[in-house]
Write a structure and sequence with these properties.
The model has no long low-confidence stretch (mean pLDDT 80). With 89 residues, this protein is an all-alpha fold. The chain is 58% helix and 0% strand. It has a domain of 44 residues.
């Protein structure tokens, strides 16, 4: 029993001897937050996704055309879509 009292006394004396504490305000925590700064609206990537269904033949034609231009098939479809819309205007 006396052993546990000694441990409690030692713990209490250690706590009392603690001279400084690390207290942060919310403002300090926000200021010191790590990581990169947030992106501006211009730098944010769109979150809209469009899904299309293709036949294997259509997919192969798009892949071949994209490869000839040195772009990914997704980029080719986007470029072709905008080119088509610009011709329609």
């Amino acid at each position: 029993m006396s052993g546990t009292q000694i441990e409690k006394k030692d713990l209490k004396s250690l706590i009392e001897k603690k001279q400084t504490t690390s207290v942060k305000t919310f403002a300090e925590a926000d200021r010191r937050k790590g990581g990169r700064p947030p992106l501006s609206d211009d730098e944010k990537v769109s979150k809209i996704r469009l899904t299309i269904y293709l036949t294997p033949d259509e997919e192969e034609k798009i892949k071949n055309a994209a490869s000839a231009l040195g772009v990914r098939p997704q980029a080719f479809v986007k470029m072709a879509s905008f080119a088509f819309m610009n011709k329609a205007d």
